[in-house]
Amino acid sequence: MSAPALRWYFDFVSPFSYLQWRKLRELIHERPVALVPIVFGAVLSAHAHKGPAEIPGKREFTYRHVLWQARREGATLRFPPAHPFNPLAALRLCVAAGSTPAAVDAIFDWIWSQGQAGDSVEALSPVAAALDVPADAVASEAVKNALRANTEAALLAGVFGVPTLCIGPHMFWGNDAHDFAVDALQHPELLEDPEMQRLKQLPIGVQRRG
C-alpha cells in the first residue's frame, strides 16, 4: 500500500505557518512534502470569513497566542513592521523560486525571524537576490497564474485556513495540530477509530435563542 501524498498549504502572512514550517523541515527529510503557497485572503473570501487580525480583540489575542507558542517552542519570532500585510510579493517570489524548501525557509526567515517587511518586491529584494530570482520573474504572468492555480486547488481540496497539512484526503489545520498530523501519519488507523468515523456523520444541531 503506497504512502499518502503530503501537501502543505501556507501563506507568508501567517505567523502560525512560520511556526509549523520549522517543524515541517524535519518531516521533509523523511518523506516528500509538496509545498503550496496560497493566498490566504482569497480563501477567507471564498468562505465569507474574516481573518483573526480583522476582528477587534481576536487580533490582540492571536498575536499574543502565537508569540506564546513561539517562545514555548524555542522559536525566534519578530513581527514585521505592519500586520496584516499584503503577502502577494512574498508568495510570488516563492513560486518564482520554485517553491523549494530553501525559498520557503529564506522568505519565512526574512519576515518572521528578522522582522523585515515582506509586502513588496522592493522590500524582498535581498531575499530575491539570495535566491537568484530576478524581479521581472516575480511579476511574470506565469508566476501570477501559478499562484492563482495553487489557491484554486486548495479551495477545491476543502482548505479553509493556513497552515494546512494534507495527508491524502485528510486535512490538519494549524500549527497546534501538527502533533495530531504526525500521529495520524505514523498511525493511519487513528482516523479509522469508530468515534473518529462517527464524527464525520454528526448532524448539525439547531441553535435556539431566547
What does this structure look like?
The protein has helices at residues 15-28, 40-46, 58-73, 88-96, 101-113, 125-130, 135-138, 141-157, 178-186, 194-200; strands at 6-10, 34-37, 164-167, 170-173. It is α+β, with helices and mostly antiparallel strands and 210 residues long. It has a 4-stranded mixed beta sheet, with helices on both faces. A hairpin with a 2-residue loop joins β3 (164-167) and β4 (170-173). α1 packs antiparallel against α5 and α4 (88-96) packs across α8 (141-157). The longest helix has 17 residues, at 141-157. The radius of gyration is 18 Å and the shape is globular. The model has no long low-confidence stretch (mean pLDDT 95).
Portion in helices: 40-55%
C-alpha geometry:
globular
Residue-averaged pLDDT: 95
* DSSP strand tally: 4
Q: What separation lies between the terminal Cα atoms?
A: 53 Å
Multimer state: single chain
User: What structural category characterises the helix and strand content?
Assistant: alpha+beta
Low-confidence stretches: none
**Beta-strand fraction estimate:** 5-15%
> What's the arrangement of strands in the largest beta sheet?
2-1-3-4
Keywords:
210 residues, alpha+beta, 10 helices, 8% strand
Short description:
The chain has 210 residues and is of the alpha+beta class.
Map the helices and strands.
Layout lengths: L5 E5 L4 H14 L5 E4 L2 H7 L11 H16 L14 H9 L4 H13 L11 H6 L4 H4 L2 H17 L6 E4 L2 E4 L4 H9 L7 H7 L10
Parallel strand pairs: 1-2
Antiparallel strand pairs: 1-3, 3-4
Helix pairs in contact: 1-5, 4-8
